Please model this.
Amino acid sequence: MDCIFCKIVKGEIPSTKIYEDEQVYVFADIAPTAPIHWLLIPKEHISGANAITAENSGVVAHIYEVIAKLAKEHGFAEGFRVVTNCGEDAGQSVFHLHFHLLAGRKLAWPAG
Ligand code: 5GP
Ligand code: ZN
Model:
């Protein structure tokens, strides 16, 4: 399968690693929109938020645990945003489930 995020997990495409464990890989977005703009991805290929099922949803809870841990460790627990774009209409450009973690500046809402 030709998936750039699977290749990043395998180390076939270089990335700036922030965190890794058995289930999740976290790396810096190549085109950051905030001082902290990281991507959290399951190591297992899941194509998007519309492909989450009872069988694979455990990793999503785990990703949110990792987010809370990283936010505390890196000092932005008081203000951050997590975004998942799903489908082309929402601007999903990489079809491997990922969570954008944004912090380090004031984040306007609604995002538009
Ligand atoms: P989406 O548009 O699917 O919500 O988010 C995909 C994100 O992946 C974008 O923010 C884009 O900058 C990032 N991205 C795409 N290709 C690469 C890459 O090869 N390396 C890294 N680190 N980020 C990437
Ligand atoms: Zn993948």
In short: DSSP finds two helices and five strands in the chain. Strands lie at 17-20, 24-28, 36-42, 80-83, 99-103. The longest strand covers residues 36-42. The two ends are 33 Å apart (CA to CA).
